[in-house]
Design a protein that fits this description.
The chain is of the alpha+beta class. The protein folds into 2 domains: about 1-190, Tetratricopeptide repeat domain (Serine Threonine Protein Phosphatase 5, Tetratricopeptide repeat, Alpha Horseshoe), CATH 1.25.40; about 255-450, Jelly Rolls (Sandwich). The chain has 18 helices and 9 strands. Strands 1, 2, 3, 4, 5, 6, 7, 8 and 9 form a 9-stranded antiparallel sheet that branches. Helix 9 packs antiparallel against helix 10 (about 145-160) and helix 9 packs parallel to helix 11.
Length: about 450
């Protein structure tokens, strides 16, 4: 068990799973070993195995809400959504204030139905004020910031909390209330002065109210202690752009920071279109949702919920093998240097999560960054004909995903091409423009960390 824990902490999930399985064999009555095995198998994307191990843990006497949560996530991964809902409810029944289970259940119901009422059916923030965070995230994801702000105001009046203040700052930003955003962000910062998230929220608010020099100064202080936080770099770059500071160009205008390369035809396929057709069919089978996840950038579409880089499917394995060459070419193109990207460039990489997005007509990505990444990506699988018309469905860079005074437009657009991989710094503001027509837009995305 201890060896497994150490392996998992080191990121070696397969060794951890094998060790937990061995522990479960050697201690056949251990519910803890089965729970840990289930959790690790779930992290690996082996949802059927995780469901079986969690069932054994419960049969061996586990009453922990964490076991029910692991089971619910596994059942969701296998596509048994009704059973997953029941398992989430069992977790909540054991621990009524279990925020993680409440959020996961709300997300499952939201993605299945696109209905706010259904998503919030089990969320009672009047009884458990902390659940206002779940209520607010659902309402914000549904495009209802005014209701989210009202729910958060009620909860904060009962029990001030830094996390609730941060959500309230986001709601106020969405409503265009810059002064209210700043008040909520600074309230969070007063409660937790060492919080990077609260400090970043305060920078966002300062840029919104037009106090850009103050925002830049605070962002520089945060960057000094969190130099690899891509969200901080994005805020600093935004402040410099607003100030006309030439340091913005060094961060964002170097053409070598962005690349677009087409993959080679993977072995086993005669042409790239044939491979992309098989890949599209494989991915579409995993898009079982009516709408987007909570607190994500896409709108009018769906996103897969498993890490595709860990799925042992021949088409997906072929994809990630084919992506290696353009990734390594991009790393070579970057070279060495002292900027936030190049100073971490070892010439190697590791994947830090991979997913697929299916946007329906009218769909888009709000502008965003990937705070815990290094390099981010877009791989184009199947595209609507409307991408021939600029900028429908195009990738936009440089338009901040936060309100600023004044507002800033994109600095460039990239037209998507089937079979092409676009790589860029994770701190780059990026989004997808809406598109028209009858066809959907199917992509794969992933983050990279230095290897």
């Amino acid at each position: 068990m201890e060896q497994a824990r150490q392996a998992k902490a080191a990121g070696d999930l397969r060794s951890a799973a094998a060790l937990y399985a061995r522990a479960a064999e050697e201690r056949p009555q251990s519910a803890v070993a089965e729970h840990n095995l289930a959790s690790t198998l779930g992290d690996l994307g082996d949802f059927a195995g995780a469901a079986a191990a969690s069932a054994r843990a419960l049969a061996k006497g586990s009453t922990a809400p964490e076991t029910w949560l692991v089971r619910a996530r596994a059942l969701q991964g296998t596509g048994d959504f009704d059973a997953a809902e029941a398992a989430f409810l069992s977790a909540i029944g054991v621990r009524p204030d279990y925020l993680t289970a409440h959020r996961d259940l709300a997300q499952l119901r939201w993605m299945r139905t696109a209905d706010v009422g259904a998503a919030l059916a089990s969320v009672d923030a009047t009884r458990v004020p902390a659940l206002a965070s779940v209520e607010a995230v659902v309402l914000m994801s549904a495009g209802e910031p005014a209701r989210a702000a009202a729910a958060l105001a009620r909860a904060i009046a009962r029990a001030p909390d830094a996390g609730l203040h941060l959500l309230a700052a986001n709601a106020r930003a969405a409503l265009g209330d810059a002064d209210g955003q700043l008040a909520q962000a600074t309230a969070a910062l007063r409660l937790v002065p060492s919080s990077t998230d609260a400090a970043k929220a305060t920078v966002e608010a300062l840029l919104h109210v037009g106090r850009v020099a103050e925002g830049a100064a605070l962002a520089e202080r945060i960057a000094a202690v969190a130099p690899d936080d891509q969200g901080v770099i994005a805020l600093l770059a935004t402040a410099w752009r607003l100030l006309g500071d030439p340091r913005h160009a060094a961060l964002c205008d170097d053409p070598r920071l962005v690349s677009a390369r087409t993959i080679d035809v993977p072995p086993g396929w005669s042409t790239l279109p044939a491979f992309l057709d098989d890949l599209a069919a494989t991915l579409r089978a995993r898009h079982a949702w009516r709408t987007h996840p909570l607190d994500q950038s896409l709108r009018h579409g769906s996103q897969t919920q498993e890490d595709l880089s860990k799925v042992h499917h021949p088409v997906l394995r072929a994809l990630f093998a084919a992506l290696d060459l353009p990734i390594r070419a991009h790393l070579a193109q970057l070279g060495a240097g002292g900027d936030p990207v190049r100073r971490r460039n070892t010439g190697g990489y590791r994947l830090a999560g991979a997913w697929s997005v299916l946007l329906r007509p009218g769909g888009y990505h709000t502008d965003h960054v990937h705070p815990r990444g290094w390099l981010s990506s877009a791989f184009y699988v199947d595209l609507p004909a409307s991408v021939a018309e600029e900028p429908q469905g195009w990738l936009a860079f440089g338009r901040p995903g936060i309100p600023t005074a004044p507002a800033l437009p994109p600095t460039r657009h990239v037209r998507p091409v089937p079979g092409q991989l676009v790589l860029f710094p994770s701190y780059s503001w990026h989004g997808t423009e809406p598109f028209t027509g009858d066809a959907s837009r199917l992509t794969v995305a992933f983050d990279l960390l230095p290897g």
